[in-house]
Amino acid sequence: MKIVNVTHGSFYAIGAYAAASLTAAWLAQGYPPFGSYAVLVLAAIVVGAPFAIAIERVILRTMYARDEVVILLVTYALFLILEDVIKLIWGVNPYFIAEPYALLGSFEVAGMAYPTYNLVLVAAALVFGGGLAWVLHSTRAGKLLLAVIHDPEVSRAMGVNVGRYYLATFTLGSLLAALAGAFTAPTVSVVPGLGVDVIVLSFAVVVIGGLGSLPGAALGALIVGVVRSLSVHYMPQVELFVIYFVMAVVLAVRPRGLFSLAEPRRI
Amino acid sequence: MRRDRTLVILAVSFVALAAGGPWLPQWAMFIVTIAIAQGLVALGLMLLLRAGLVSFGQALFYCLGAYAAGALGRFVGISDIFVEMLVGGALAAFTAFILGFLLARYRGIFFGLLSLALSMILYGLLVKNEALGSTDGFNILASTLVGVRPRPDWVRYAVLVSAAAVALIAALLVHRYLNTPLGRLAPAIKDNEIRVEYMGASARRAVHVKYVIAAALAGVGGALAATAVGHIDPEMAYWTTSGEFIFITILAGTGSVVAPFVGALIYGAIHTTAYDLSPNTWQMSLGAALLALIVFLPEGLWSLFTRHVRHS
């Protein structure tokens, strides 16, 4: 959509908080622990969707004609507001829900214990990534969406309901962020400031991959993950900024990211 | 053509501040000094914004200036406020000159994110650097003025007046610059860069020059803030600090060199009041204010003023 969305970090945090608190409530009621996976997913969707829809309908839709940078600032303002909304709703105390994480146990690879939950996460990521690629490139709605992003005016002239596509895309994107938060919640303690860290990191991911490119984002995430682990292992003192260093190097060589398309010049 | 009143406004505000300063309470002097420091950074951002560039990493130079000032006091034993500002600005400008070769090629979102990445690298370096105090940072010495040490109860005022003097000079220089051919190129670059190239001007060089000037101003601002607060830490390079500066610049608008300072003062007021009224949700108030500004006053507060003038 040509929107660089800082609010994404907030949705990640909202997803994590919703999942953590609702799953904790679910377990406290004594319901079967395996149901907690369904609660994780449902919590993220049910709590994230109203926020996403409200933000798109009320604020963002009046902004599409403005500059990319202005939209970035708008989402930054929304991010500041949501940070405090999250604190108001869930307080500042950390939430822990380790049950879904511990439940699946772990298995051994070459003598090292590896939690099954992480494997499930990888599978989930593959399913979501593959599903998104399939929707975008093989269904009518996905192809129409690509057309809308490429040229909203012509799409509107062709009879596409552009506003509805924007709403659907923004909501879907935000829900993915909320789901990511929900899936991560069992592996970390959910504390304020969760969104700040994740948003800058995911910017680095998409910038390395090339804005608006799905394989780019996947490759970017892989690069970021591997580089971070390597630096933690070999040079822990550079762990904090090695990502930004990689990002600067990638941009220096490929000014628009690894998987970017050529842009026509406006004269 | 309307007569240019910028000079008069600047001179009058400086004299008013210098004369009225001693009657201000200590906390107000502090807020005004910090506002001037942030105004200097915003002044540089305004230069870039006129060319359509938003730097999400101006905190890099702010922090560099502050650490240069701190290191001078800690390792060399110089704590003169003017020397500190000069060195802070020079170090920032030099860094920007080097980085500019890379950054001047980028526009829009990529310029913003790349500058953000660079400032986060500095943050990471400082956090891991034990000699510079790691995450805690360190305190810096009380300042002297051209070799003279003011009495303790006059230190705040002395810093305030030197800050105002430096801001006055910076504002005048930038005002001059805006009217040079290179300065007037900015809106043209924002509008259509390829036409700028067809006219025979180099957009990249113009951006590079603006970037260096903006960095120098941010460095001076950082050194100033460091002496005023008396303490520096790596948070000064974190991206949320850059966010504050952008907030001020958007708040002020790009209409005049006076605007960033007014913007910084208003920002300080909003920030302090919001923090006072609801310490737990001040971010929300700030976000709401920023949102309202973008929606209702896209050209910044300064546009209120100019619109009024045109009508009368």
Order of helices and strands of chain B: HHHHHEHHHHEHHHH
Number of domains of chain B: 1
Q: Give the tally of structural domains of chain A.
A: 2
What multimeric state do the chains show? Answer: heterodimer
Number of helices of chain A: 11
Largest sheet of chain B: 2 strands, antiparallel
Average pLDDT number of chain B: 81
> What is the alpha-carbon Rg of chain B in Å?
19 Å
Average residue-wise pLDDT of chain A: 78
Estimated helix fraction of chain A: 55-70%
In terms of structural class, how would the helical and strand content of chain A be classed? mainly alpha
How many angstroms separate the termini of chain B?
A: 15 Å
Q: Major sheet of chain A, described briefly? A: 2 strands, antiparallel
Q: How much of the sequence of chain A is in beta strands? A: under 5%
Overall outline of chain B: globular
> What global shape of chain A is seen?
globular
Strand line-up in the sheet with most strands of chain B: 1-2
Strand-residue proportion of chain B: under 5%
Low-confidence stretches of chain B: none
How many beta-strand elements of chain A?
2
